[in-house]
Amino acid sequence: MTHITGGRSASDWALIILAFIAVVSALDLAQALLAPFVLAFVCAVVLSPLSNFWKRFGLPPSVGALLSLGTVLSLLAILAFIAEPIVERAYVQIPDIKRELSATISQMQDMFRGINDVTKEVQDTISPASSGEERESVDLPSLGDALFAAPSMIAQILLFAAALFFILLSRDDVYEGLTKVHPDSPSGACLRGADARVSRYFLTITLINTCFGVIVASALWALGLPGPMLWGMIAALMNFLLYIGPAMVAVSLVVAGAIAFEGAMSLAPAATFVMLNMMEGQFITPTLVGRHMQVNPLLVFLSLCFWLWLWGPVGGFIAIPLLVWGIAVFEGWGPAPKASPQKT
Q1: What is the pLDDT of residues 142-163, one digit of tens each?
Q2: CA pair distance 33, 29, nearest whole angstrom
Protein backbone atom coordinates (compact mmCIF):
# COMPACT_ATOMS: atom_id res chain seq x y z
CA MET A 1 0.00 0.00 0.00
CA THR A 2 1.34 3.44 -0.92
CA HIS A 3 1.96 5.65 2.08
CA ILE A 4 -0.16 8.81 2.01
CA THR A 5 1.10 12.07 3.50
CA GLY A 6 -1.10 15.13 3.52
CA GLY A 7 -3.29 13.84 0.67
CA ARG A 8 -0.33 13.00 -1.61
CA SER A 9 1.45 9.72 -2.06
CA ALA A 10 5.20 9.29 -1.63
CA SER A 11 5.58 8.90 -5.40
CA ASP A 12 3.80 12.23 -5.94
CA TRP A 13 6.24 13.98 -3.61
CA ALA A 14 9.16 12.29 -5.31
CA LEU A 15 7.93 13.52 -8.70
CA ILE A 16 7.51 17.06 -7.31
CA ILE A 17 11.06 17.06 -5.92
CA LEU A 18 12.49 15.69 -9.17
CA ALA A 19 10.55 18.26 -11.19
CA PHE A 20 11.85 21.07 -8.95
CA ILE A 21 15.44 19.86 -9.35
CA ALA A 22 14.96 19.63 -13.12
CA VAL A 23 13.54 23.17 -13.30
CA VAL A 24 16.37 24.61 -11.21
CA SER A 25 18.97 22.80 -13.34
CA ALA A 26 17.35 24.10 -16.52
CA LEU A 27 17.30 27.67 -15.15
CA ASP A 28 20.97 27.36 -14.26
CA LEU A 29 22.04 25.93 -17.61
CA ALA A 30 19.94 28.41 -19.62
CA GLN A 31 20.94 31.48 -17.61
CA ALA A 32 22.43 33.29 -20.61
CA LEU A 33 19.13 32.98 -22.46
CA LEU A 34 16.51 33.09 -19.71
CA ALA A 35 17.97 35.77 -17.42
CA PRO A 36 17.54 38.61 -19.98
CA PHE A 37 13.96 37.42 -20.70
CA VAL A 38 12.99 37.28 -17.02
CA LEU A 39 14.64 40.65 -16.39
CA ALA A 40 12.74 42.05 -19.37
CA PHE A 41 9.48 40.64 -17.98
CA VAL A 42 10.11 42.28 -14.59
CA CYS A 43 10.89 45.61 -16.30
CA ALA A 44 7.73 45.29 -18.42
CA VAL A 45 5.68 44.68 -15.27
CA VAL A 46 7.22 47.73 -13.60
CA LEU A 47 6.52 49.79 -16.74
CA SER A 48 2.87 48.68 -16.96
CA PRO A 49 1.52 52.10 -15.83
CA LEU A 50 3.57 53.77 -18.57
CA SER A 51 2.23 51.31 -21.15
CA ASN A 52 -1.32 52.00 -19.99
CA PHE A 53 -0.65 55.73 -20.29
CA TRP A 54 0.42 55.38 -23.94
CA LYS A 55 -2.69 53.29 -24.59
CA ARG A 56 -4.99 55.88 -23.04
CA PHE A 57 -3.18 58.52 -25.06
CA GLY A 58 -4.31 56.71 -28.21
CA LEU A 59 -0.89 55.59 -29.47
CA PRO A 60 -0.53 52.30 -31.38
CA PRO A 61 0.89 49.41 -29.28
CA SER A 62 4.12 49.31 -31.29
CA VAL A 63 4.75 53.03 -30.76
CA GLY A 64 3.97 52.75 -27.05
CA ALA A 65 6.34 49.78 -26.70
CA LEU A 66 9.11 51.72 -28.49
CA LEU A 67 8.60 54.75 -26.25
CA SER A 68 8.68 52.59 -23.10
CA LEU A 69 11.81 50.80 -24.32
CA GLY A 70 13.44 54.15 -25.12
CA THR A 71 12.59 55.36 -21.61
CA VAL A 72 14.31 52.35 -20.03
CA LEU A 73 17.41 52.60 -22.21
CA SER A 74 17.64 56.35 -21.62
CA LEU A 75 17.46 55.89 -17.84
CA LEU A 76 20.17 53.22 -18.00
CA ALA A 77 22.36 55.50 -20.14
CA ILE A 78 21.91 58.40 -17.71
CA LEU A 79 22.77 56.14 -14.76
CA ALA A 80 25.89 54.88 -16.56
CA PHE A 81 26.90 58.46 -17.43
CA ILE A 82 26.56 59.56 -13.81
CA ALA A 83 28.33 56.50 -12.41
CA GLU A 84 31.21 56.40 -14.92
CA PRO A 85 33.45 59.10 -13.36
CA ILE A 86 32.76 57.83 -9.85
CA VAL A 87 33.55 54.23 -10.76
CA GLU A 88 36.66 55.30 -12.70
CA ARG A 89 37.92 57.29 -9.73
CA ALA A 90 37.36 54.30 -7.44
CA TYR A 91 39.09 52.01 -9.95
CA VAL A 92 42.18 54.23 -10.03
CA GLN A 93 42.30 54.33 -6.23
CA ILE A 94 42.25 50.54 -5.81
CA PRO A 95 46.07 50.24 -5.37
CA ASP A 96 46.08 53.02 -2.75
CA ILE A 97 43.13 51.47 -0.95
CA LYS A 98 44.85 48.10 -0.92
CA ARG A 99 48.07 49.64 0.42
CA GLU A 100 46.23 51.46 3.21
CA LEU A 101 44.22 48.36 3.99
CA SER A 102 47.42 46.33 4.18
CA ALA A 103 48.91 48.90 6.57
CA THR A 104 45.78 48.75 8.73
CA ILE A 105 45.89 44.97 8.85
CA SER A 106 49.60 45.10 9.68
CA GLN A 107 48.82 47.35 12.65
CA MET A 108 46.18 44.89 13.81
CA GLN A 109 48.68 42.06 13.42
CA ASP A 110 51.06 43.86 15.78
CA MET A 111 48.49 43.30 18.52
CA PHE A 112 48.95 39.55 18.16
CA ARG A 113 52.71 39.20 18.27
CA GLY A 114 52.42 35.89 20.06
CA ILE A 115 51.30 34.20 16.84
CA ASN A 116 54.54 34.84 14.99
CA ASP A 117 54.21 32.25 12.24
CA VAL A 118 50.66 33.24 11.27
CA THR A 119 51.53 36.93 11.41
CA LYS A 120 54.53 36.50 9.13
CA GLU A 121 52.56 34.37 6.67
CA VAL A 122 49.71 36.86 6.38
CA GLN A 123 52.10 39.83 6.18
CA ASP A 124 54.06 38.24 3.33
CA THR A 125 50.80 37.58 1.50
CA ILE A 126 49.07 40.95 1.79
CA SER A 127 51.93 43.39 2.55
CA PRO A 128 54.45 43.53 -0.31
CA ALA A 129 57.89 44.95 0.35
CA SER A 130 57.74 48.10 -1.77
CA SER A 131 55.20 50.46 -3.24
CA GLY A 132 56.03 49.40 -6.79
CA GLU A 133 55.49 45.75 -5.92
CA GLU A 134 52.18 46.67 -4.29
CA ARG A 135 50.91 48.26 -7.45
CA GLU A 136 52.05 45.34 -9.59
CA SER A 137 50.37 42.84 -7.29
CA VAL A 138 46.92 44.32 -7.85
CA ASP A 139 45.16 41.90 -10.17
CA LEU A 140 42.91 44.23 -12.17
CA PRO A 141 41.00 43.34 -15.34
CA SER A 142 42.99 44.11 -18.49
CA LEU A 143 41.78 45.69 -21.72
CA GLY A 144 41.93 42.27 -23.35
CA ASP A 145 39.60 40.86 -20.68
CA ALA A 146 37.15 43.69 -21.29
CA LEU A 147 37.26 43.20 -25.07
CA PHE A 148 36.78 39.46 -24.65
CA ALA A 149 33.68 39.99 -22.46
CA ALA A 150 32.23 42.80 -24.61
CA PRO A 151 30.51 40.64 -27.30
CA SER A 152 28.74 38.52 -24.68
CA MET A 153 27.61 41.62 -22.79
CA ILE A 154 26.37 43.31 -25.97
CA ALA A 155 24.45 40.16 -26.91
CA GLN A 156 22.82 40.10 -23.46
CA ILE A 157 21.81 43.76 -23.76
CA LEU A 158 20.36 43.26 -27.24
CA LEU A 159 18.46 40.18 -26.08
CA PHE A 160 17.09 42.10 -23.11
CA ALA A 161 16.04 45.06 -25.29
CA ALA A 162 14.32 42.81 -27.86
CA ALA A 163 12.55 40.78 -25.18
CA LEU A 164 11.38 43.93 -23.39
CA PHE A 165 9.99 45.40 -26.61
CA PHE A 166 7.99 42.30 -27.55
CA ILE A 167 6.72 41.75 -24.00
CA LEU A 168 5.53 45.35 -23.86
CA LEU A 169 3.97 44.96 -27.29
CA SER A 170 2.06 41.73 -26.63
CA ARG A 171 1.63 41.63 -22.85
CA ASP A 172 -2.14 42.16 -22.87
CA ASP A 173 -2.67 39.65 -25.67
CA VAL A 174 -0.61 37.04 -23.81
CA TYR A 175 -2.56 37.63 -20.60
CA GLU A 176 -5.88 37.24 -22.38
CA GLY A 177 -4.61 34.14 -24.16
CA LEU A 178 -3.59 32.53 -20.88
CA THR A 179 -7.14 32.83 -19.57
CA LYS A 180 -8.35 30.67 -22.49
CA VAL A 181 -5.81 27.89 -21.95
CA HIS A 182 -7.58 26.45 -18.92
CA PRO A 183 -10.73 27.49 -17.05
CA ASP A 184 -8.76 27.62 -13.80
CA SER A 185 -6.09 29.92 -15.24
CA PRO A 186 -5.76 33.39 -13.66
CA SER A 187 -7.83 36.01 -15.41
CA GLY A 188 -6.39 38.89 -17.38
CA ALA A 189 -7.69 41.28 -14.74
CA CYS A 190 -5.86 39.27 -12.06
CA LEU A 191 -2.55 39.41 -13.98
CA ARG A 192 -2.92 43.11 -14.74
CA GLY A 193 -3.71 43.73 -11.07
CA ALA A 194 -0.51 41.89 -10.11
CA ASP A 195 1.40 44.08 -12.58
CA ALA A 196 -0.03 47.22 -11.00
CA ARG A 197 0.84 45.99 -7.52
CA VAL A 198 4.46 45.21 -8.45
CA SER A 199 4.82 48.50 -10.30
CA ARG A 200 3.52 50.49 -7.35
CA TYR A 201 5.78 48.55 -4.98
CA PHE A 202 8.91 48.91 -7.13
CA LEU A 203 8.43 52.60 -7.90
CA THR A 204 7.85 53.36 -4.22
CA ILE A 205 10.93 51.39 -3.18
CA THR A 206 12.98 53.13 -5.91
CA LEU A 207 11.96 56.54 -4.58
CA ILE A 208 12.77 55.49 -1.02
CA ASN A 209 16.16 54.06 -1.98
CA THR A 210 17.07 57.16 -4.00
CA CYS A 211 16.34 59.45 -1.07
CA PHE A 212 18.12 57.00 1.23
CA GLY A 213 21.24 57.11 -0.96
CA VAL A 214 21.24 60.92 -0.93
CA ILE A 215 20.91 60.99 2.87
CA VAL A 216 23.70 58.41 3.31
CA ALA A 217 25.98 60.37 0.97
CA SER A 218 25.28 63.59 2.88
CA ALA A 219 25.93 61.93 6.24
CA LEU A 220 29.20 60.35 5.10
CA TRP A 221 30.27 63.67 3.57
CA ALA A 222 29.64 65.35 6.92
CA LEU A 223 31.80 62.71 8.60
CA GLY A 224 34.61 63.37 6.11
CA LEU A 225 34.68 59.88 4.55
CA PRO A 226 36.30 59.95 1.07
CA GLY A 227 33.98 59.26 -1.87
CA PRO A 228 30.60 59.97 -0.24
CA MET A 229 28.79 60.08 -3.61
CA LEU A 230 30.05 56.61 -4.47
CA TRP A 231 28.97 55.27 -1.09
CA GLY A 232 25.55 56.91 -1.47
CA MET A 233 25.06 55.28 -4.85
CA ILE A 234 26.19 51.90 -3.50
CA ALA A 235 23.83 52.25 -0.53
CA ALA A 236 20.88 53.08 -2.81
CA LEU A 237 21.54 50.17 -5.18
CA MET A 238 22.34 47.60 -2.50
CA ASN A 239 19.20 48.56 -0.57
CA PHE A 240 17.20 46.77 -3.26
CA LEU A 241 18.72 43.52 -1.88
CA LEU A 242 16.85 43.43 1.41
CA TYR A 243 18.87 42.27 4.42
CA ILE A 244 21.84 41.08 2.37
CA GLY A 245 22.65 44.37 0.61
CA PRO A 246 22.68 46.63 3.70
CA ALA A 247 24.75 44.07 5.62
CA MET A 248 27.38 44.07 2.85
CA VAL A 249 27.46 47.88 2.81
CA ALA A 250 27.84 48.02 6.59
CA VAL A 251 30.80 45.62 6.51
CA SER A 252 32.39 47.61 3.67
CA LEU A 253 31.98 50.84 5.64
CA VAL A 254 33.73 49.25 8.62
CA VAL A 255 36.74 48.64 6.37
CA ALA A 256 36.50 52.11 4.79
CA GLY A 257 36.25 53.72 8.23
CA ALA A 258 39.31 51.81 9.46
CA ILE A 259 41.26 53.13 6.45
CA ALA A 260 40.08 56.75 6.63
CA PHE A 261 39.93 57.34 10.40
CA GLU A 262 41.60 56.30 13.63
CA GLY A 263 40.24 55.14 16.95
CA ALA A 264 36.51 55.05 17.65
CA MET A 265 35.88 57.39 14.71
CA SER A 266 36.62 54.47 12.38
CA LEU A 267 33.26 52.92 13.32
CA ALA A 268 31.30 56.14 12.73
CA PRO A 269 30.53 55.55 9.00
CA ALA A 270 29.19 52.04 9.58
CA ALA A 271 27.25 53.09 12.70
CA THR A 272 25.71 56.04 10.85
CA PHE A 273 24.68 53.83 7.94
CA VAL A 274 23.16 51.17 10.24
CA MET A 275 21.19 53.84 12.13
CA LEU A 276 19.85 55.37 8.90
CA ASN A 277 19.02 51.95 7.49
CA MET A 278 17.12 50.98 10.65
CA MET A 279 15.11 54.21 10.50
CA GLU A 280 14.32 53.60 6.82
CA GLY A 281 13.38 49.95 7.34
CA GLN A 282 11.33 50.40 10.51
CA PHE A 283 9.50 53.67 9.83
CA ILE A 284 9.83 55.08 6.30
CA THR A 285 9.25 51.97 4.15
CA PRO A 286 6.30 50.55 6.18
CA THR A 287 4.62 53.96 6.13
CA LEU A 288 4.99 54.60 2.40
CA VAL A 289 4.61 51.03 1.12
CA GLY A 290 1.72 50.10 3.37
CA ARG A 291 0.93 46.87 5.16
CA HIS A 292 -1.17 45.52 2.28
CA MET A 293 1.98 45.27 0.16
CA GLN A 294 4.27 43.78 2.79
CA VAL A 295 5.68 40.31 2.25
CA ASN A 296 6.67 37.68 4.79
CA PRO A 297 10.33 38.36 5.70
CA LEU A 298 11.18 34.65 5.51
CA LEU A 299 9.84 34.45 1.95
CA VAL A 300 11.83 37.55 1.03
CA PHE A 301 15.04 36.10 2.47
CA LEU A 302 14.54 32.69 0.82
CA SER A 303 13.70 34.30 -2.54
CA LEU A 304 16.80 36.51 -2.38
CA CYS A 305 19.06 33.61 -1.43
CA PHE A 306 17.67 31.37 -4.17
CA TRP A 307 17.86 33.86 -7.04
CA LEU A 308 21.22 35.28 -5.95
CA TRP A 309 22.62 31.76 -5.83
CA LEU A 310 21.08 30.90 -9.20
CA TRP A 311 21.67 34.04 -11.32
CA GLY A 312 23.87 36.34 -9.25
CA PRO A 313 23.17 40.12 -9.36
CA VAL A 314 20.39 39.75 -11.94
CA GLY A 315 18.71 37.22 -9.68
CA GLY A 316 18.98 39.57 -6.74
CA PHE A 317 17.29 42.32 -8.75
CA ILE A 318 14.33 40.21 -9.92
CA ALA A 319 13.82 38.25 -6.68
CA ILE A 320 11.50 40.65 -4.85
CA PRO A 321 9.42 41.82 -7.88
CA LEU A 322 8.85 38.18 -8.92
CA LEU A 323 7.86 37.25 -5.39
CA VAL A 324 5.43 40.16 -5.08
CA TRP A 325 3.97 39.39 -8.53
CA GLY A 326 3.54 35.70 -7.70
CA ILE A 327 1.85 36.45 -4.38
CA ALA A 328 -0.47 38.99 -6.05
CA VAL A 329 -1.45 36.44 -8.73
CA PHE A 330 -2.02 33.75 -6.09
CA GLU A 331 -4.21 36.06 -4.00
CA GLY A 332 -6.23 37.15 -7.03
CA TRP A 333 -6.59 33.64 -8.49
CA GLY A 334 -10.08 32.30 -8.78
CA PRO A 335 -13.43 33.24 -10.24
CA ALA A 336 -14.35 36.88 -10.19
CA PRO A 337 -16.80 37.74 -7.40
CA LYS A 338 -20.40 38.05 -8.48
CA ALA A 339 -21.76 41.55 -8.47
CA SER A 340 -24.32 42.08 -5.74
CA PRO A 341 -27.70 43.41 -6.87
CA GLN A 342 -27.99 47.13 -6.51
CA LYS A 343 -30.63 48.49 -4.23
CA THR A 344 -33.07 50.89 -5.72
Answers
A1: 545 544 555 677 888 889 889 9
A2: 9
